[in-house]
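We store sequence, tokenised fold; for instance:
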Amino acid sequence: MSNAYQATLQYAQEQDEIDILFPFRERFHFPQHNDKDVHYFCGNSLGLQPKSVSYLMQSELNDWAKYGVEGHFQARNPWFSYHHLFSERLAKIVGAKKDEVVAANTLTVNLHLLMMSFYRPDAKRYKIIMEAGAFPSDQYAMETQVRMYGYDPNDAIIEITPREGEYTLHEEDILKAIADAGDSLALVMFGGVNYYTGQFFNLEKITAAAHKVGAYAGFDLAHAVGNIPLKLHDWTADFACWCSYKYLNSGPGGVGGIYVHEHHYSNPKIFRLGGWWGNEEKGRFKMEKGFIPQNNAGSWQMSNAPIFNMVAHNASLDLFEKAGMPALREKSEKMTGYLEWLLKQITHLPFVIITPSHPQHRGCQLSLLFTDRGREVFEKLTENGVVADWREPNVIRIAPVPLYNTYEDCYRFYEILMSIA
């Protein structure tokens, strides 16, 4: 398809004219630069605000004012069951059954809660495999979890690193490391998409390899959810968690998400920490001792659903429902491919794209590694109305999000880079 690409504004605008998802752009607020919409390529860090958020927020505020505490049952969307609004829509996005998912808590809280259930080490089986250079919060979680059980992270955590001179991991190296760890391995805990390189890992094969040696497989999907179609149930992943403020456009610190395979949530022997909202719903207001977990992923909830925090999630998931992940993925592959091609036409700036080129191995993120002048280039992009993401020590991350970015955005980004002397 790259043979048909053209580095012209006309070509980009023609692609936007035939893009069936183009109208969704009008459903988001864009920051302004010189009274114009910025070229926003930072959806892999914080998604834009859907315009419907303010209306839905005011509706909840009205119900709070009107009903007070009775809003738990009398509000238009009763707060007692508010989290149920998300299950079916989230299930479609992550490829799960609706009882296997719940919107609750926040990302790293969920990761710790799930590890309390699925990382149960003993003298023989205590090791964790993860990718080197995972997002810091994942590294912190693994480190403190193994320390909690008295293990040395340098021994208990196996980090898989790229081969010398490379930036991304080879699938065969991941699978070999799992096989080599064998019956010492308790858990494989990978990010679905590496935040730095943008590499999407083969979660199906990783899960199968983990299960073959008797270990659990769990995933942090912060950079994958809403970005790449997932099939968590079919892949038999044991658990996963994610945030909602990146591709799911649900606001800073937005509510997190949990997936637990039905084999586990229905197993009373799977330990989980108890919380009021995780208890069996019918007995919630009996105020009795004895935690009885719900027979679904909701049993990993802790406290009341944070209603105002969830309003933006509701708004954004409506847009995902209307657009559909298949259409979003199709546009993502095409638009990311176009932007990659444009960037490869630039020869006067010292960068390489370290994100895999094959669409199956990436989402909509491209990571530009600079050997020099990286921070200078980033600042000049900002001066020209581009919102991108700088990651130490030398990478500019850009994400052409299919729900609100356009081919013209991609061309303008290329045009600005070309103008930097």
